[in-house]
Amino acid sequence: MPFEFKPLEIPDVILVKPKVFGDERGFFMETYKASEFKANRIPYDFVQDNHSRSQRGVLRGLHYQLRPMEQGKLVRCMRGRIWDVAVDIRKGSPWYGKWVAVELSEENKLMLWVPPGFAHGFVALEDGTEVIYKVTKEYAPELDRGIIWNDPDLGIEWPIEDPILSEKDRKQPRLRDAENNFVYGGEL
Ligand SMILES: Cc1cn([C@H]2C[C@H](O)[C@@H](COP(=O)(O)OP(=O)(O)O[C@H]3O[C@@H](C)C(=O)[C@@H](O)[C@H]3O)O2)c(=O)[nH]c1=O
């Protein structure tokens, strides 16, 4: 099997571990394969790939797009390290307002599947950290929304104090005030 799929504490969020083939030249790994992902509770088509670079302490998030342009995201860190967070914001979900986080790095090569209905964010733990992620719907700026990273109702334990934020992310609302049209449908 080229991948291991491990559901996290919120089981719709899945940690994906690729099989890495190392040899004297370097390494090879598959980073996405439709048949394997579809057979392991990630039945989506991906339509856009993104790439960002961040200095240490940059925090991007927490972001989501409203329905009908809700995005699932397959996130990977190809240089440096991030602490990657997914927050369940599906109304009626047993995990509403709960979060899970994992470290993704150049070294561990792990990927995080963040389904539609989750807010997503990460903090870069090293300078020059590069993140690439596939998304299931295209960017729709008019439906782009966010939640403030340090919302006390979420209590996310970020590993960095005083992060570097975009102007937009400094002004995001709390979850309780954020526009959100996700409804939990018992996805499991
Ligand atoms: C996300 C995105 C941004 N942009 C543009 C808009 C803006 O001028 C510039 C930077 O956008 P942002 O400040 O929103 O970029 P950023 O803060 O990196 O936003 C990203 O954060 C992570 C946590 C996510 O989960 C992503 O879905 C996305 O929301 O890039 C696109 O053209 N396409 C896109 O898909």
UniProtKB/TrEMBL annotation:
GO terms for biological process: dTDP-rhamnose biosynthetic process; polysaccharide biosynthetic process. It catalyses: dTDP-4-dehydro-6-deoxy-alpha-D-glucose = dTDP-4-dehydro-beta-L-rhamnose. The keyword Isomerase applies. One of its GO terms (molecular function) is dTDP-4-dehydrorhamnose 3,5-epimerase activity. The active site is at 63 (proton acceptor), 133 (proton donor). The record marks 139 as: Participates in a stacking interaction with the thymidine ring of dTDP-4-oxo-6-deoxyglucose. GO terms for cellular component: cytosol. It is an enzyme of class 5 (isomerase). Pathway: Carbohydrate biosynthesis; dTDP-L-rhamnose biosynthesis. CDD domains: cupin_RmlC. Keywords: Isomerase. InterPro entries: RmlC-like, RmlC-like_jellyroll, RmlC_Cupin_sf. Its EC number is 5.1.3.13. Catalyzes the epimerization of the C3' and C5'positions of dTDP-6-deoxy-D-xylo-4-hexulose, forming dTDP-6-deoxy-L-lyxo-4-hexulose. Belongs to the dTDP-4-dehydrorhamnose 3,5-epimerase family. PANTHER family: DTDP-6-DEOXY-D-GLUCOSE-3,5 EPIMERASE, THYMIDINE DIPHOSPHO-4-KETO-RHAMNOSE 3,5-EPIMERASE. Homodimer. This is dTDP-4-dehydrorhamnose 3,5-epimerase.
